[in-house]
Amino acid sequence: MIAIYPGSFDPITLGHLDLIQRGSRLFERVIVAVLRNPNKMPLFSVQQRLDQIRLSTQHLPNVEVDSFDGLTVNYAQMRHAQVLLRGLRAVSDFEVELQMAHTNKTLSTQIETVFLATSNEYSFLSSSVVKEIARFGGSIDHLVPPHIALDIYQCYNHNSPMLNPISTEATPPLKSMSAQKEA
Ligand code: ADP
Known about the structure:
By secondary structure, this protein is of the alpha/beta class.
């Protein structure tokens, strides 16, 4: 069975990668499909995101990376895929994802949406959270692969985090980030 894992992946996080890795054990092939969405202002271009995902998944031989536009079900049909793979983090995801799965079912009865529950350690993680932390100088080294952390730091004009990464030592309180911002 071929599964499509569609998303924005702006940028791909360790949560996405965990899902891809687990999906690659369940399906013959997983196609990670970056949506070309003209309505969104992404941090990375589609080509940059494709390169980032390819580098992050090169150890998984049955994972392919591609981009698409238009309806996901049309793309899935074109790629002869039977499954849309999606991740569920919280109840808030569930509502949106269920609506999308039902909508897609009305467009194609041949394609099933399969949800994987996120691994506990990534249940809070999203691309937006990563960008928000990096924008204010926090460390994202524990949230994305190293090459992507570098790409993001470069986007925000610093080569490394300005704050200490999370460790067992005392971590700077979030308040100090906003204080730094105001300074
Ligand atoms: P979209 O714009 O379609 O939500 P995303 O790149 O944000 O694109 O997410 C793509 C898919 O990955 C969605 O199904 C989302 O629920 C899932 N996902 C996002 N973050 C995580 C995570 N931390 N763990 C597991 N799944 C995730």
